Give the backbone structure.
Amino acid sequence: MHRLQLHYTLSKDNSTAGVRNALIDLLQAVSSQGSISGAARALGLSYRHVWGELKRWEVELDHPLVVWEKGQAAHLTPFGNKLMWAERQAQARFAPQIEALRAELERTFSAAFDDDTHVVTIYASHDEALSQLREFAFQSANQKHKRLHLDIRFMGSVDAIRALNEGRCVLAGFHTLENLLTVNGHTSSETLSTDLSKQTYKPLLKPGLHKIIGFAKRNQGLMLAPGNPIGIHSLTDVINSKARFANRALGTGTRVVLDAFLQHAQLSPKDIKGFDTHIEPSHAAVAQAVQSGQADVGLGIEAAAVQSGLTFVPLVAERYHLVCLKSALDQAGIVALLDALQTKQWQDKINHIAGYSAMQSGQILSMRKVLPWWTYRK
C-alpha cells in the first residue's frame, strides 16, 4: 500500500485548485504526446530526466508504466493507463473538497495579509461559473470596495439552503428549471419546472425572510462519449439502449432535474442502468466517468462536457440562483459581491463559459416571479 503525502504552495497567479503529482503529469504527457521526447517538451523537462523518472517509478511501483520499443511510439501499459485514469477520476470526484480546502487556506492567509478583507461564505450546488467568480471577486478590489474573498463550499442544493437557514453560511447557491428544451424529443411546457422544485425548495425558502439574487443561466443535458456512438438523444434512448448511467445523489439540484424529467415523461428510474448504483458527487465527476468508459451517459452541465471533450445533448435551460437572508443585504461583503456581479467584465467572462449566459446577474429578484409556486396569498 502506497501512502499519499500532500503539500501546497503560495502564489499570486490565478491557477485553479488541484492536487498535482509528478508521476501522473509524466503519464499524461506520454499519453497525449505519444513519445518520451514529446512528453519532455510538453513539460519543459529534459529527455534524460523524463526517461529516468519513468524508470525509477517502474522500480518503485514494481509495474511497467510505458511500453519501450525501439522505433515505435511510446504508449502506456495497461497498468500505466489504469493508474492515470484512476487519478483523474479521484480528482474529479474530490474537486469540491479540494476547492473547499483551498478556500479555507486562502481565507486564513487573507486575514493574515489584510485584516480588512471581506469574507463571504457560500454553500452552493457545484457550478463552473461560481468557481471562476472566486478568482474574479478576489481581484476586483477598487477604491469603492476592499478585497473580497469568497469561501465557497460545494454541496447539494438542499444542503446548501439548509446551511443558510442554520447560519452556517451567508449565501447559498441552487438551481431551478427555466424551461424545457426537449423531453423524449418533444418540446414541453413549463409545468415540469414547478412540481418537484416546489416540493423540494418551498419548505426551505420564505418570502420576506429570503432574497433571491440572479446569477446565471446555463444548459444541462446528457454527456456522452465523443460522437455519441450509442445514438442517445433522450432519457427514453438511455433506457432503450440499456446504457450505463452515472447519476447524482439525492439532495442535489441535478437529481431534482432528473427526477422531474422522469416523472414528466412517465419513465421509471428502475429502468435506468446504474440509477441507484453509480453515484457521482459533481458534474465534473460524471463527465470523468463517461470519459473513462465507466459510464455511457450522465446528466450534467454543458461546461463539464466541453472540458472533458464529450458530446453534449442539451435537455433543459436552468437558472442558477444565489439566496441570502434579507438582513444580510446590507453587509459590506454582500454589497461588494453584488457590484462585482453587475460589472461588464464579469458578465463577459461568464458569457464565454460553454452553455452559460449572464442573466440578471447581481440583481435582487422577486421570489414570486423567479419561483412561480410562491404567492403572497394564502
